[in-house]
Amino acid sequence: MAVKKIDKYLNNNESLPVNITIDYTPEQAIEFKKCAEDIIYFAQNYFHIVNLDTGRQTIKLFDAQKDAILDILKNKRTIICASRQIGKRLHVDTPVPSPNGWTTMGELKDGDIIFDWNGKPTKIIKAHDILDNRECFKITFSNGEEIIADTEHEWFTQSRIERRKGCDGSVKTTKQLAETLVYGKKIKEPNHRIPFKHKVQYKEKELSIEPYLFGYWLGDGESAGSRIIVGKQDVEEVYFELLSHIRQKRLISLKNSSCFNISILQDEKGSFKNKIKSLNVYKNKHIPDIYLQSSEQQRMCLLQGLMDSDGYINSKGTAQFYSIKKKMAENVIELLASLGIQSSLTTKIPTIRGKKCNRVYIVTFKTDLPIFRLKRKYKKINKTKIARNDFIYIKNIERIDSVPTRCITVDNPDQIYLVGKTFIPTHNTTLMTIVCLWNVIFKKDYQVAILANKEDQAKEILERIKLAYEELPNWLKAGVSEFTKENLRLVNGSKIFVSTTSESGIRGKSVNLLFVDEFAHIASQIADPFFKSVMPTISSSKSAKIVLISTPKGAEGKFYEIFRDAEKKKNGWFAVKIHYSQVPGRDIAWVKEQQASINYDMDTWKQEFEIEFLENGIAALNQAIIDRMKSETCPAELSFDEGEYFVWKQPEPNKIYTIGVDVAEGVGQDFTVATVLDITDLDNIEQTAIFASNKIQPWIFAEKLNQIARSWGRPFLCVERNKEGGQVIDALLNVHNYDNLVTFSMKNDKRNVYQSPGIFCHQNSKYTGIQNMKYFIETKQSVKIYDIKTVREFETFIRKINKTWGAKKGFNDDRIMALVWALVLLEKDIAEKYLDIIEYDEAGKPSVILDPNQHLANLNFHNLLNDNKPIRNIGGNKDFSIFFNYEEKTKVNLPEKYASMLYEPTWEFL
């Protein structure tokens, strides 16, 4: 009979004594041998995960996962690129903090900067489309915050079971949280809590009043003046020490009172009273945004002033802030949250000597941070870490009616970012956990290192391994000698430890297996020296292995370089791709749902799902699309202005036209372009005309554009306003009274810089416009471009280093940008503003539209045809006529109703 000596067990084996010998049954001995020889057999029969829907269960590996595990065992160097799954959504009105102030989920744009879990800036890679008809829940937290999320939104929480086992926590969906909301049979208590550990990193601000002084005045200052009330026990310390830097101040003793007034006449920068007026706090006490969004040190100084004046702390370290203004109390809660301190708000009406006083709002919290400067209060701060205050508890989750929701993708590996006024954090390593656990159990003295961009991320992976270890049957386990958050050490000499991915992460340590998680998201300045320090160690050992695993992140960086060369079999690495289609359940319906959730952004789809690394310099459209578009080009029916204006299809009544305009200086370099599109049928959008000149000056072009536009029945004009475009727009409005202009500006524009008529081309609007164009041209394939020069521009219109699009050096993209702005009218938010949308397609784009001004357009069109006035010559250019063919001046190829007009006495050739 086989025997096995066990030195120590933990957790679910606590009843077993140390240093015992287990007698294997014959069946167990056979099973042990099978597991040691076959990792797939071990995983599918004994590797357990805990699923909140179905509970404890063995892992079910799909074929691609099995192949990847075996590839890791067979190869010395393995690099794995796995597709991402998107679709976690929050209500569009959810407040989101950013380094530039508060915004909402609905206002976020690609490229915006918000905060990650640790309060540091992180970039939004993609702000996905807003969707309705999602199953939604309202989550209520212990600090009073309420957030609405859809059923699949992910949260990193620590459950009761995870707390008991010493596990930091795991990612769970809203639905999973709702199904396991409480624990306990008789007394129900919250089951889930979220770590609250961040300090938001705003930039230092230029503040008109020093923050400590301002905080003290907000707490105990005269609302309509510059005096501060100070108690007798504190006056000497406040006047001579804490406010010693204020030179012009006066101390006033109050009669029949134990308090003093300190009158602040001037600080270092001028009149104190004038400053509180300029901050709009004169007779209106609150904390202005510039103070709430200042640096960490400035916010701490502000808090110290508030707490020294209107704060209290008891002998147990419980602190409170009092205010009769609810707005002030809410400001303090936000201030505390931004410093990583959670708090609660209560209210009461105090009674003094039997008389009721004003309602008071009380903010209560605990912290070991230096929230006071006054010595008598400071000494009461509890320096002991208060564990419970490091978490926010989920109190309730209730189903609500569907609301518009949105998800975003942020540029950090854990995909966690902060939301809500109290800064709540909200958010595939299965292969890694199986391989690591199998190696250390069945091999002696085997060292495994798990590295991640953040230590917490690495620790979470180790927690999953520990959980799987605990679920093994006792006869299969190796004894444990160390079981911490950073280490799992077994008595057979094997060990798993975690660290951050850095040059010194495993320096001086010998490892048999090195796993590096989300390597594509590690900055080059870290990745490059890391490799230089690690690879000599791995290469010197015949058996040592290294595995890099990540979701894709562009065609740049160390991960991309290694993966590209590995696919070409150039560098000794073995490349593994786990494509979305290899995951069971990801069928056509799943693809449509995911593509709809990313607004049919095919660049995002190709990179994050198809695992196509998008290189800088690739064309905006694939060659097959460009070839199709070339085949559809044809000579224009009419041409004017010596070949600057071409017409393929003449104006018709009851049609909806849009004209996109890109304006240049007219000095012989870039082109001024106006592209006319017929968008009546969104399944068959046609280019009907184009004007392009690199010599026409903006003020002359404004009149010509006015004539072109009115000849098409007063269509929508989508004019880029930047630089020379502003001159054209102003002339159209003020000289030509043409007001059917489309405005596309920034929603979150507090300074109103981008609110003038026209289209402001900035990073977000250009990205939105180009993705919208790619949808109609590439995805829907509903646009016909007849101008060969426009199509040829697409061959040199490329993706650039900063992830935007533009022409290659030495080429133009003016025709494309005019096309982008013509089509931007069909971007959902803009279309809803200017058009009547009858139907939407599956991507949320308009599919059937009406022009609410159609009757006016028809009127203008017929007025043009019956107008007795000739088209006026402009700018000394006698060669302009909307229906004039320069090539055959006497043979105009026009329908009878148009041609007859040219020979009436009231008309003349220009």
Fill in the keyword field for this structure:
910 residues, alpha+beta, Rossmann fold, Endonuclease I-creI, 8-stranded mixed beta sheet, 27 helices, disordered C terminus
Characterize the structure shown.
By secondary structure, this protein is an alpha+beta fold. The chain has four domains: 3-84 and 428-582, Rossmann fold (3-Layer(aba) Sandwich); 99-197 and 391-426, Beta Complex (Endonuclease - Pi-scei, Chain A, domain 1); 211-373, Homing endonucleases (Endonuclease I-creI, Roll), CATH 3.10.28; 623-851, 2-Layer Sandwich (Nucleotidyltransferase, domain 5). It is built from 27 helices and 50 strands. Strands 34-35-36-33-37-38-5-39 form an eight-stranded mixed beta sheet, with helices on both faces. Helix 3 (63-74) packs across helix 13, helix 13 (430-442) crosses helix 14 and helix 22 packs across helix 24 (814-823). Mean pLDDT is 79; it is low at 8-18, 51-55 and 855-910.
What's the layout of helices and strands?
Layout: E1 3-6, E2 20-23, H1 26-37, H2 39-46, E3 48-51, E4 55-58, H3 63-74, E5 77-82, E6 90-91, E7 95-98, E8 101-104, E9 113-115, E10 121-127, E11 136-141, E12 146-150, E13 154-157, H4 160-164, E14 170-173, H5 174-179, E15 182-183, E16 189-190, E17 193-195, H6 211-220, E18 227-231, H7 235-242, E19 248-253, E20 259-267, E21 270-271, H8 272-278, H9 289-292, H10 296-310, E22 311-313, E23 318-323, H11 326-338, E24 343-348, E25 351-352, E26 355-356, E27 360-366, H12 375-378, E28 391-400, E29 405-406, E30 408-410, E31 417-419, E32 424-426, H13 430-442, E33 447-452, H14 455-470, E34 480-483, E35 487-490, E36 495-500, E37 513-517, H15 524-540, E38 545-550, H16 557-567, E39 574-578, H17 588-597, H18 602-608, H19 623-632, E40 638-640, E41 645-647, E42 657-662, E43 672-678, E44 685-693, H20 698-711, E45 716-719, H21 724-734, H22 763-779, E46 783-784, H23 788-794, E47 797-799, E48 805-807, H24 814-823, H25 828-834, E49 836-840, E50 846-850, H26 854-866, H27 896-899
Parallel strand pairs: 5-38, 5-39, 33-36, 33-37, 37-38, 42-45, 44-46
Antiparallel strand pairs: 1-2, 3-4, 6-29, 7-8, 9-10, 10-30, 11-12, 11-28, 13-14, 15-16, 17-28, 18-20, 19-20, 20-21, 22-23, 23-27, 24-27, 25-26, 31-32, 34-35, 35-36, 40-41, 41-44, 42-43, 43-44, 47-48, 49-50
